Amino acid sequence: MLDKRMTKEDIFENLKKFQDMDMSYESGRILSSMCTKPDPIAMEAYKMFIETNLGDPGLFPGTSLMESEVIEMLGHLLHLENASGHLVTGGTEANIMAMAVAKYLFQEKHEGVPEIILPESAHFSFKKIISMLSLEAKVVPLDENYKMDVSKIEDLITENTMAIVAIAGTTELGLIDDIEKISEIAYSHDIYLHIDAAFGGFVIPFLDDEHKGDLNFDFKCKGVSSMTIDPHKMGLAPVPAGGILFRHAEHLEKLAVKTPYLSKNKQTTIVGTRTGAATAATWTLLNYYGMEGYRKIVKNAIELTEYTYKKLNLMKNVTVTCKPELNLISFTSNNKSADILKQELYDYGWRVSVAQRPHVVRLVLMPHVKKEHIDRFLTDLNEVLNG
Fold first, then answer.
1. What is the phi/psi pair of residue 222, to 5°?
2. What is the DSSP-derived secondary structure letter of residue 145?
3. What does the pLDDT look like over 284-327, one tens digit per residue?
4. How many whole angstroms separate alpha carbon 92 and alpha carbon 253?
5. pTM for the full model?
6. What is the DSSP pairing of strand 226-229 with strand 242-246?
């Protein structure tokens, strides 16, 4: 192919064909993704900083300063002053960084095989992490509410326990573990606690009092050592934009490697070259929306979730798995399996997914999904189930 050049017109004609094969968020038919259509103002900022490289921050001091301000703002959002961290590619990289830090800390005092305690509901990134870092997994079963069974945690703690992981917004059901109690356990045993709030981090802080109550899920809990939070989910930033925050600056320093040929003498990230565009987009969104703007975004998503929840509960042959805590709903049918239902909805043009624990159809009500989309979906769902 490379021995024959294409004209600019032919290139963009082909690009349009590739693009037309993709689903669009505007269609409202993507009900399986925790990502959404980026806000236009974020896209403007992203394009302005597309050529910057935070892997060589001395060349881009303004972009580097922006990253520091983003980490400060995210820390404030999650009740942490003087936060340390980075904008990274997403939740997987953030989780890897946290567990790498936990392993380095563990190895300073222990010689055994490091063990990680995590719930059945943990994101699949932890399967990668367990393999990459040669960890032994101790899996905590879920309770009757599909959350980490806190009563089982201490039974799994040994002298080789490296870290405990809890979830604020599980990928499959959108539920929040009892992080306050888990934090007490971790703190009392002096065990590193990481909170994967990749999804919930940009939802929970903006919930109204009725939905949030007295929920504590972040650094307000003194046992929490690090947190993952993804701006490219409910933060409305373009992909890739993930975040990792550490309570202690010295923990981030455990990842430091010398970079003698760059403009700074060390890096504390996993990747070397990383775009500053995601940082610019996130900085823009945090300043543009602020607390009040994000409260409105979350309020709209929660209201649509509750509307969908009520409609599903009224439908024949449908059983909703649990009452939603965030903007995610799951359900089953008494006359079709989740896998068959997913495929038949695919045939109608809807993109839903299937959770594994439990095995149910899963819907994520992101900002690109509107009431008219849900009404059409429910009409098609009724036809699939009862037609």
1. -65, -15
2. T
3. 999 999 999 999 999 999 999 999 999 999 999 999 999 999 99
4. 19
5. 0.96
6. antiparallel
